[in-house]
What does this fold into?
Amino acid sequence: MRLKRSKPAADSEANLIPLINVVFLLLIFFMLAGRLAPTESIAVDPPRSDSPQGTRATPLALLIDRTGQISLNGEPLDDAVLAERVTEIIADGPAHLQIKADATLEALRLVDLLEQLRAAGAEDVDLLTLARGEG
It folds into this structure.
C-alpha cells in the first residue's frame, strides 16, 4: 500500500506575513528612535569632571571644538558675531548659557571666549564636563 504525502498548504506562507510585519515595524521604530537625538554641528569631546552634573534647562548651547570653531545653538559663528548675538539674546531677558568645549582646546582660547561673553553681558554660564568614567 502506498501512502500519499500531501503538499504543505498555502498557510505556511501566510504564517510569515505577521513575522515580516513585525520586522518592518521594528526597523521603522529604530530608524525613528535613532533620529530623535539632535546631532551637534561640530565634533566636540568635553573634558572629564568629578563635580556633580546640574539639570537646568539650556536655552543657549555654545559649542567650541579643538580648532576654536564656535557654534551657538547649532549655528556656526565667528567671535564678533557671537558677541553681538549674545548681547541681542540677553537684551530680551536673562539667559542661561552652557559651554561645551573640546577637552583638547587651549585654555587661553576658552578664557578669551569667557571674557567676550562677560563683556556681552552673559552672567549665567556653565562649562559642561563629563563625569570621570563616562564615555
